[in-house]
Specification:
Elements: H1 3-11, H2 13-23, H3 28-44, H4 47-55, H5 57-92, E1 105-106, E2 113-119, H6 124-139, E3 144-150, H7 159-170, H8 174-186, H9 195-204, H10 209-215, H11 219-234, E4 242-245, E5 248-251, H12 256-268
Parallel strand pairs: 2-3
Antiparallel strand pairs: 1-3, 2-4, 4-5
Helix pairs in contact: 2-3, 4-5, 7-8, 7-11, 8-9
Length: 274
């Protein structure tokens, strides 16, 4: 056995001890005594374990894989329970996004349901988020307002420039901005064409291109995107898409049914009336 292999096996010693020790559990006292004895034996002669592994490698690997699987399941359950606790806490302490005076809102300016999204035009998961938003706007028509905010990720080459185009169009006309937003997500694959596709889309929705080019890198556009990114960060939105549904954080491209379940729960708790 090479030194590299021996080193790898010795890293598994701790886990092996737990597996071996579990066989001898009778009571807390006897278990601790047995573990101490096994530990001492391995300290005196670590080849006891390595020899056993060499003689029964298949059995050892099988036990190790089973233990790893069990550990993953336990960790998964723990994370699920932690998420449930956080979700319940968010019903009582919802996060509050800034709705600016000049915010472009789809739906009624005042509505019982407020859905805020932090998104990246190039993110493939955000295209799923787009479909979810469209479904919710249709299902709760007249009772939901939607606000789109920016969280362009650095590793998406076209994300920041797309956000700037959206804001430059929005400064002219919010309805044109909404049309720009929808067209980009419906044709997301064409973003690989960069500015050419963005220009064509802006022209298609009727934007004033001379004014757009002037506003594209303006302080107003830059600061607005920066404000969105900062706000997303304060809410722990590191990936995209991220949502706030009446202040309840949803991190990821969940299907419409998940949002519906949250709305139903808000109603049950008396925190929402439709």
């Amino acid at each position: 056995m090479t030194n590299k292999n021996l080193g790898g096996l010795m890293k598994l010693t701790k886990l092996a001890l737990v597996l071996l020790g579990s066989i001898f559990i009778v009571s807390c006292t006897s278990n601790e005594k047995m573990k101490a004895q096994i530990t001492q034996i391995l300290k005196d002669d670590p080849t006891v374990l390595t020899s056993a592994i060499e003689k029964h490698p298949a059995e050892f690997i099988e036990a190790l894989q089973k233990a790893a699987k069990n550990a993953q399941e336990e960790m998964g359950k723990k994370r699920e329970e932690e998420e449930k606790i956080k979700l319940q806490e968010s019903f009582d302490k919802p996060l509050v996004a800034e709705i600016r005076k000049d915010e472009s809102i789809r739906g009624p300016k005042v509505a019982p349901i407020t859905l805020v999204e932090y998104s990246d035009f190039e993110c493939p998961f955000c295209s799923r988020g787009f479909e979810t938003v469209q479904s919710l706007l249709k299902k709760y028509d007249g009772k939901i307002r939607f606000v789109y905010k920016h969280l362009p990720l650095s590793f998406h080459e076209q994300a920041m420039i797309s956000a700037k185009y959206y804001e430059a169009v929005r400064m002219q006309d919010e309805k044109k901005a909404f049309a720009f937003h929808d067209t980009i997500f419906k044709n997301q694959g064409k973003l690989k064409n960069g500015v050419g596709f963005l220009d064509a889309t802006a022209k298609q929705v009727g934007a004033d291109m001379a004014r757009l080019k002037k506003d594209l890198n303006s302080e107003a556009v830059t600061k607005r995107i920066e404000a969105d990114v900062k706000e997303a960060g304060t809410f722990g939105m590191q990936g995209t898409p991220g949502f706030l549904l009446n202040g309840i954080p949803v991190r990821g491209a969940y299907p419409p049914e998940y949002f519906v379940s949250l709305i139903d729960e808000l109603q049950k708790k008396g925190k929402l009336k439709l």
